Amino acid sequence: MTASSPGAPSGTGRRLLGLLTPRPSGWQTPAATAVAVVAALALSSALITLTGGSPSASVQALFEGSMADWTAWTSTLLYTAPLLLVAVGACVSARSGSFNIGQEGQVLIGALAAAWVGLRLAINGPALLVIMLLAAALAAGAWAGLSSLMHRLRGVNVVVSTMLMTFVAQQVVAYAVNMPWLLQESRVGNAPVSPQSNPLPPSGLLGSFGEYPGLQINGGLILAVAAAVLAAVAITRTPWGFRLTMLGRNPLAAKHAGVRVNALGGLALAISGALAGLAGAVLLASPVGVNRLQPGMAMNIGWDGLLVALVARNRPLAAMPVALLFGVLRSGGGFLAATGVPSFLVDVVKALLVLAFVAPPVVVALARRRRSGGRPAGARREAAPAAEEAIA
Amino acid sequence: MSAADDISTILSSGIRLTVPLAFAACGEYLAERAGTMNISLEAMMLGAAFGSVATASATGSATTGLVAGVLIGLLIGFVHGNLAHRLEVNTFVVGLVLNALVLGLTSYLITISSFDSHQVTQVSVPWLRDIPLIGHPLFVERWPVYLLLLIVPLTWWLVERSRWGLELRAVGEQPQAADVTGIRVNLRRRQALLWCGALAGLGGAYLAVGEVGSFNQNMTAGRGYIVIAAVIFGAWRLGRTLLGCVLFGLADAMRLALPALGLTMNSQLLVVAPYLLALVAMLVFTTRNREPKSLGQPFVRGST
Amino acid sequence: MTTVDERARELTPPSTPALRLRGVSKRYGPVVASDNVDLDVNHGEIHGLLGENGAGKSTLMKILLGLVQRDSGTIMRGDTPVAVRDPQDAVALGIGMVHQHFSLIDALTVWENVILGDTGRIDRAAACRQVEEVSRRYGLPIDPTARVERLSAGERQRVELIKCLRRDPSVLILDEPTSVLTQAESAELFTVLRHVVRAENRAVILISHKLAEITAATDRVTVLRKGKVVFHSPTGDTTPPELARWMVGRDVSLRAEGAALGMLPVDGAAPSGDPPAQTTAESPSGAEAEAVTPAETTAEPAAGAGSGIAPALRLRDLTVVIDGVTVLSELSLDVAPGEIVGLYGVEGNGQSTLGDLLSGLVLPSSGTVELTGRPVELERPGALHRAGLGIIPEDRHSSGVVLDMSVAENLVMKSIGDVSGRGFVSRRKMHAVARRLAAEFNIVAPSLDAPVRSLSGGNQQRVVLARELSAGPSVLVAAQPTHGLDVGAIEDMYQRLRDAASEGVAVLLISTELEEVMALASRIAVICSGRITGVLPAAEATAERLGMLVGGVAA
């Protein structure tokens, strides 16, 4: 998007905020959401039934794969951690008025940086892990920051540039694992070499609390929950969060009030990238994968994390249960195939659920406006000052 | 093989890879001129690809499959249009969700079904096909390719010369002004999305029942995003957008031909070219492009 | 039925009614925007529709244009009831509107804009021919192939008129048409309107909140208040004070409140010194005494502004270039403590940019801003605020308030550090500050936690004013501070500005309302095409001289 005048904010971002951030509403929105969720689940069941599967068996399989025992819970939480990290980042940038949709690429860049550091630095001990996480956050933060820079210098729309950069990131990682001098795995004898990195050294792995077969809580989850709580406090309680909210709701007023609009907006985008990058490092270093950098390792965590934030309406704390739900669907999805229902079903369910959460508030607001005659709220009250009560 | 044969082969494959992009680009171009940044293009192409193969298998006619693809594109355009330009759900969110939904749904369905292979017939133009180098690539093609000869000028005429197009452009630029003038802004945007859906559907269906003859999971593999990159690269001009499609198609053909040519070049640069070129175009042409001023912004009467 | 007919006969003497409204009502939720409105507009006359902001003028017009649907009532063309479901219906019925804002598409050419909203095939040659024809007939020269984005405000107005007249409307509606025009351009407009009415027997509805314009240009006048028709008369049979009374609903002194109603200060009232002080001198009756007293203390510094006292605000050679266009050109202006300086000009001559610059939204390409003798580092965010400049921005919705944040949050927006401790915002401190300011500035709101969006325009503006004055500024810039407010709120704003000046604040009033600057300012600077074309003491400022300066002619 071309800025029409210096300092003009991205119109898209501004408009988006109105739709994405929590707004006061009555009982209609929860009611409509409940109806929509039921409809989404009904549609999913219908799909299973029509294709010869059994909805109850599918639910059973989802449950077994995600919650039936501690092993299942462990697996669920392993998916929850990166999803939550991505979602928290998405909340921060959306609150600032920038809509970052490039998390899938930022996850990969984070994983790339973490892998590079983990495999190249010959450090033993916990320092390596810390440096890996930092490298992931910095690299992915800078990657997302590029979009902010492009917006600032040339008015390039952030949504579009973060989206395009995702595909660039995928090829950067593909390149890295195809180049022996970069990160491609070492050749052992005459064995064929795959496009992946060597496995991380043990000191570069995220440990877990708890022992198999009990519940294991991976360090990644602790990181993610800490990030969510921190972000929630920072956004709602600190002057920084106040400025961020101001920037998101009305960038011109924020600038007028002395907020460093470009710096803060860029920072918010970089934070969202950095958290996605951390998610990448967690994917790499936790037992959810094979602890090697692989081009496909992001597994749509970036896209899904974005959907988590959408469902949570950009509230970091609300993102925690939603991320858990998405984690359940992911880890349960693997068990579906055994019942004759392809695991892709969970993708359908997820998309329908997101729709069920995203559409109702907008529709309710629209219906309210239609009822009141098509005028925006401000204009309506303009003519009715008498309806207000004095507070003074 | 001679160098000329190599070039002809790459051209040939490049054109085949360009055609689905070009169909979809005509649609996306029109939708964006009307103000919708339609990222559900990927869903339209993928859904249509699946629908066309399923229908072709059921009816035994690839052409019927092609029509079904167009209808599925229309359906997705209809859903997107109504969610974004009637219910006022943010258009990017709608796009993300539709992409996820269609990818999940087609992946699900293809895993539990199997389809017969059908392809539309090939046309070979006498005389012209014997032109050296370009003869075979241009004049021995599946027949829907030649629909482009109709659709490209039609798209141009619609946008630049028809009253509908004038209104679309007004709606993409200043929807508030268009509204006051008596143009139904969101209706025009929904209509533009239908056009976009139909053409993206044609592109996706062509990919499936035209080129490949079957469907595989995530078969469009991000082609929708490439088309969006092409429109950006083309700075919202139809000619340049199509040029972008040709460039991106050729880059893809090059990538596929690398092993056959015995080149040990890394393919990533070719894969990434469309996105990089689009980014560069946005950085370079900012003042000279025709980006609609209200691209991606919802229209709500009374807000300015 | 008979009563309606009788009334109709009584209101429409010889000429035939072009348009009749009977009992038209429209509610928005609890608010009645249009209340049982009867209106007759005759062929061959200019009908003035007068009313305050929010009186229901625009709702009525939107109903006529099919942009809004009425709840009840009848619209008749001649004697036939008609339906106006959408703008196309309105066009078919011969109702055309000249919009002031948001109706031309910049990226399209003149002829494309003119045919926008028609139906059928596009014929470029025919369209251009029609544009030229209409433009010749009414003396509105324009190049049909020019892109609208290149046109001046006056030229855009011509395109609007041509677009409307080409459709040969029998009823022509103009909504606040002169706000973006110079006096010369306004004169051109009224010449065309007179021709349209007299020679072509069309009907014209002129919507305005300016008394002067209505009394000068119309044949009949209807006054709306709170959605109701409260007064109706041939313009010649009424007087500005009578109209003002109907408009506001109480007796008003045109001397004191005329500016708020769009009237020039009454004869000879061109103030010799400080206008409020002048009011004192001229209203010995003390009718509006409360408006006056504080001003006397300011007469001294204001008078001395030109000599001696160091200016609190000093703009030096400010040049702003946006997208290659020079919007402000070497603009210099001083404002002394206790003085109100008016910067007057027609909309679109650089005032908005100056306001943006003083809001910290735009940087000058050259030139400096000095506050109390010290240059301000404009590139540092918030520097102007810290240096003691408060500002009421021109468009409060775009940069003055954050509509979706609460009243309390908006009040502390610029001083969030002051209500925070140990890294956290203290809601207790925030509410304490907000409660104090709300009381002090009479802000009426459902609660301090209610979003500013839920406040009336006047109260939103008070939120801005309270926030800006609470920082104890040495300079207050008020850009179009009364835009969109009703008379009560306007009067309140005037009083606050006078009070601020009397307390020693240097006030820069940026306004497009001639009446406003003449009533408030002790010196008036005129801006045209981004330059100051002249600075006059209020005593020497007459409407004529200002009018010439506004048109770029040295007076």
Quick summary:
Chain B: Keywords: Cell membrane, Membrane, Transmembrane, Transmembrane helix. The complex is a heterotrimer of chains A (392), B (304) and C (555). Chain A is built from 15 helices and two strands.
Task: Kindly describe this structure.
The complex is a heterotrimer of chains A (392), B (304) and C (555). Chain A is mainly alpha-helical. Chain A has 15 helices and 2 strands. Chain A has helices spanning 11-20, 28-50, 55-66, 70-95, 103-120, 126-154, 158-176, 219-237, 239-249, 251-256, 261-285, 301-311, 316-336, 345-371, 377-382; strands at 208-209, 217-218. In chain A, helix 3 (55-66) crosses helix 13 (316-336) and helix 5 runs parallel beside helix 7. Chain A starts with 10 loop residues before the first helix and ends in a 10-residue tail after the last helix. Chain B is globular and about 65 Å long. Chain B has a two-stranded antiparallel ribbon. In chain B, helix 1 runs antiparallel to helix 9. The longest helix of chain B has 31 residues, at 3-33. Chain C has 3 domains: 2-94 and 169-252, P-loop containing nucleotide triphosphate hydrolases (Rossmann fold); 104-168, no CATH class; 310-550, 3-Layer(aba) Sandwich (Rossmann fold). Helices cover 35% and strands 24% of the residues of chain C. In chain C, the strands form 5 sheets. Chain C has a 6-stranded mixed β-sheet, with helices on both faces. In chain C, a hairpin with a 2-residue loop joins strand 14 and strand 15 (374-375). The relative contact order of chain C is 0.10. The model of chain C is unreliable at 1-13 and 266-307 (pLDDT under 50). Classes of the chains: A mainly alpha (392), B mainly alpha (304), C alpha/beta (555). Chains in contact: A-B, A-C, B-C. At the A-C interface, helix 9, helix 10 and helix 15 of A face strand 1, helix 14, helix 15, strand 18 and helix 17 of C.
